[in-house]
Design a protein that fits this description.
The chain contains twelve helices and seven strands. By secondary structure, it is mainly alpha-helical. It has a three-stranded antiparallel beta sheet. A two-stranded antiparallel ribbon has the order 1-7. The protein has a two-stranded antiparallel ribbon with strand order 5-6. The longest helix has 51 residues. The N and C termini lie far apart (88 Å).
């Protein structure tokens, strides 16, 4: 009687992509909450194109201006996996760990400072651990150039700012605070502008880490600092996969940005006064930014519909913001097409040169 055959032992295969995730739980979280998340890419700044506004000195309080310049296509899936795999969050000194394609990364203020080549700043005026005791009425007057009350919870509108602060606000919203709503600004965002303009030191590394941690816990927000994260992961030689999604930074800030900003507010007086509340989406973004900065959440008063003109003005502002976002997406897509055309032209030129080399010589005349 023959002995029973032994079954070959098999090693169970993971039911998830182990090159991208450490567990099935993280893979499920990615599909559910991160695969379709918007990635915010920073916008390049061309300081030399501004005649009346000296951009670079305004960023001295950050310790450097590397937050103004990014180039090349950016891996969006890197950014999504970076945020999806965040764990071991520490509140004592803001930090966390993450894991991107076999690379374990501990994100600390020192890591961010080394990446951006900046030093730790003293004293630290922002982010503040507790709500500051500064007079926000004076801050508003400085930014708007006219007496302006600023009760807690209210928002200042973009067109109320002095021209130089309108441009600075657009840059801050794209590359530092990272919010899609630049037309209406809460107190924390305005305090950042105030610090930059008055050369008051800002701990950019802590600001960035707090923003990252806050976004990880809020599924409705886009993922910030896409270009900076790509720079970090490129230095760590994180592998690239064939199915990765790429995009180029949106159109840069140039002299044209100033004219567009002025056209945006054309016909609106730079009057001083108390701003009303705003739509639900902007309220959530403003409250989140305040929380991520380390301050109290600003309770935005309910929106009043009694004034039809105010309602129309808010609706037009939201529409213009939407169009700006569409133009950014179009410019990004146009940049991809331009790069693709350049690559195709280069390949065709190479093929033609090979064909010319391989072409047989004509037979000699007899």
């Amino acid at each position: 009687m023959s002995a029973p055959k032994r079954r070959k032992s098999t090693v169970p295969r993971p039911t998830f992509n182990s090159e991208r995730f450490q567990s099935a739980k993280q893979a499920k979280l990615f599909r559910k909450s991160f695969a379709a998340r918007t990635v915010h890419l920073e916008r390049n700044v061309q300081p030399n194109t501004f005649e009346s506004i000296h951009i670079c000195p305004l960023f001295d309080p950050l310790g450097g201006d590397l937050v103004l310049s990014f180039s090349g296509r950016q891996n969006l899936d890197w950014v999504r996996e970076f945020f999806c795999n965040i764990e071991q969050i520490s509140d004592i000194e803001p930090s966390f760990t993450t894991w991107v394609r076999s690379k374990s990364i501990t994100v600390t203020p020192d890591l961010i400072r080394g990446l951006l080549k900046i030093d730790q700043v003293f004293p630290e005026h922002y982010p503040f651990p507790v709500r500051p005791t500064c007079d926000f009425h004076n801050v508003a007057e400085f930014l708007c150039g006219a007496p302006r009350t600023w009760p807690k919870g209210s928002l200042i509108k973009q067109f109320e700012l002095l021209p130089e602060f309108r441009v600075l606000n657009l840059i801050v919203c794209a590359n530092i605070i990272v919010t899609t709503h630049s037309s209406k600004i809460n107190q924390d965002q305005r305090f950042v502008l105030f610090c930059l303009a008055r050369h008051m030191s800002i701990d950019l590394a802590i600001l960035i880490i707090r923003k990252m941690v806050g976004v990880f816990g809020n599924k409705q927000l886009g993922l910030p600092y896409g270009c900076m994260i790509n720079c970090l992961l490129s230095q760590l030689e994180v592998p690239v996969f064939k199915d990765d999604e790429f995009a180029f930074p949106s159109r840069p800030f140039t002299k044209k940005t100033v004219s567009q900003s002025r056209a945006h507010v054309k016909g609106e007086s730079s009057r001083a006064g108390t701003s009303a509340g705003t739509a639900a989406g902007l309220v959530k973004e403003a409250e989140f930014d305040a929380t991520a900065a380390g301050g109290e959440e600003d309770v935005v008063p309910p929106r009043a519909f009694g004034d039809p003109l105010q309602h129309f003005e808010d609706a037009m502002t939201q529409r213009l913001d939407f169009l700006d976002a569409r133009f950014d997406a179009f410019d990004g897509r146009l940049g991809q097409l331009e790069q693709s055309a350049i690559q195709t032209t280069t390949q065709l030129a190479h093929i033609i040169s090979l064909l010319q080399i391989q072409q047989p010589h004509p037979p000699p005349d007899v």
